[in-house]
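User: Design a sequence. Structure:
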């Protein structure tokens, strides 16, 4: 702990693993919410091919078994009939490339023949009939909260938008950290978001390939957690390089501090460099991770419409929220935060009082880019992948959120991210989703007309509120 007090920037390396221990490991230890959703679906789809559908097939539950197996309990006909068990064993779990390879099928512990297995695997599962005949996951609507349909639809859209709220909050906070210190915008933050996402993708694929069955010891919790942690750490290290090689030479005292054009031009050049590096690393296309996650929970219902809450949304919302709150606490309660606020208000006076401007800028740059990397990891772990140029518009949206909150105000930036995120969620639910970025810019224009300084900023420009 003494080393962490002397070198606060090391928290950037430690914090992701603390989040892993506090949030992800307990979920892993209790076993998670049932079986892998994709493997459970493939196993369920075998039931109509193995049993007659005249009396109906009721799926009662699904859980993970030993040896990459999934157990699906079911009943044919009414309650009077006995419960049966279908076991499917796959080639891997998590993000393994062979996680969909069906190797063994057992009915109440008795394996099917080789010819039956071949037909199920290579003929039945590849047809549209199997998709249409899927009996569906186990549900017990009687235990769910019954809501009016408009409220249930709004709740489902809000649950689906939790990742976007976290992403925009992280990006807005990252923008405010850089701007609050040097008074200039880093236009390449979106590219560093893509960097964090692609690093997370490559780390997840590497970890999955490192053990038999796709890192089968850890299942589907530890691999994405470790991959996301590595993505954040490497992004933070990239932030150190950015601060030392670009931001500090352009903003150090006695150089060209106060002239904004070089920083903006360098930001545009950095966008091109990072994008091309990511294109060479990932390719012109997008590398997608397989949809490895547990089954969702039934949160509420409105007749046949069900509101589903997936565990990955809860985990990432907790991680993002914890990261945002931790940074706000760090900037308010620690010596690093006090130095940042002092330098943001008056950099020359802060330097005369003993604040090292170079060390402060390097730490701030590392922290800001690590937050952008966490936003990229959130995109990958929730949506499966990100294009090498996919961070540009997200970076601009994060900038909009920071401006809306009062750029340079950390709490205002987070609030601006939440407002923009909720606005985009509502827009996607009611209007054409292709226009939500344009609508966000129009919202910013309207807000700045009514309140030029944002929620917590100032209209006169030079003053910045930390």
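Assistant: Done.
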């Amino acid at each position: 702990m003494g080393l962490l007090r002397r070198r606060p920037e090391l928290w950037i390396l430690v914090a992701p693993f603390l989040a892993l221990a506090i949030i992800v490991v307990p979920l892993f230890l209790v076993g998670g919410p049932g079986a892998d959703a994709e493997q459970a679906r493939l196993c369920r789809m075998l039931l109509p091919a193995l049993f007659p559908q005249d009396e109906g097939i009721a799926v009662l539950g699904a859980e993970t078994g030993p040896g990459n197996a999934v157990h699906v309990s079911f009943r044919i006909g009414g309650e009077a009939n006995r419960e049966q068990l279908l076991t499917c064993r796959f080639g891997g779990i998590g993000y393994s490339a062979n996680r969909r390879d069906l190797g063994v099928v057992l009915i109440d512990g008795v394996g099917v023949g080789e010819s039956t297995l071949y037909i199920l695997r290579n003929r039945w599962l590849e047809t549209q009939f199997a998709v249409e005949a899927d009996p569906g996951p186990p549900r017990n609507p009687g235990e769910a909260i019954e809501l009016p349909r408009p409220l249930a639809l709004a709740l489902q859209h809000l649950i689906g938008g939790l990742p976007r709220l976290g992403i925009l909050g992280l990006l807005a906070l990252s923008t405010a950290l850089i701007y609050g210190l040097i008074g200039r915008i880093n236009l390449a933050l979106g590219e560093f978001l893509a960097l964090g996402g692609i690093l997370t993708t490559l780390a997840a694929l590497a970890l999955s390939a490192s053990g038999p069955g796709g890192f089968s010891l850890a299942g589907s919790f530890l691999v994405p957690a470790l991959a996301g942690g590595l993505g954040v750490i490497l992004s933070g290290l990239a932030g150190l390089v950015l601060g030392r090689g670009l931001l500090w030479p352009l903003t150090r005292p006695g150089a060209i501090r106060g002239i904004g054009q070089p920083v903006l031009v360098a930001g545009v050049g950095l966008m091109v460099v990072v994008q091309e590096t990511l294109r060479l690393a990932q390719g012109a296309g997008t590398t997608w991770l397989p949809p490895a996650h547990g089954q969702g929970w039934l949160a509420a219902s409105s007749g046949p419409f069900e509101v589903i809450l997936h565990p990955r949304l809860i985990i990432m919302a907790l991680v993002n929220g914890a990261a945002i709150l931790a940074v706000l606490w760090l900037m308010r309660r620690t010596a690093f935060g006090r130095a940042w606020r002092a330098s943001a208000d008056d950099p020359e006076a802060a330097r005369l009082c003993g604040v090292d401007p170079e060390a402060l800028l390097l730490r701030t740059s590392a922290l800001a880019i690590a937050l952008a990397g966490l936003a990229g990891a959130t995109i990958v772990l929730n949506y499966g992948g990100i294009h090498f140029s996919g961070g540009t518009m997200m970076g601009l949206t994060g900038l909009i959120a920071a401006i809306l909150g009062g750029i340079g105000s950390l709490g205002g930036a987070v609030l601006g991210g939440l407002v923009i995120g909720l606005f985009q969620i509502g827009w996607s639910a009611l209007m054409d989703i292709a226009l939500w970025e344009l609508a966000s810019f129009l919202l910013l224009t309207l807000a700045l007309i009514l309140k030029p300084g944002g929620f917590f900023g100032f209209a006169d420009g030079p003053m910045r509120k930390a």
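The mean pLDDT is 80. The chain is about 60% helix and 10% strand.
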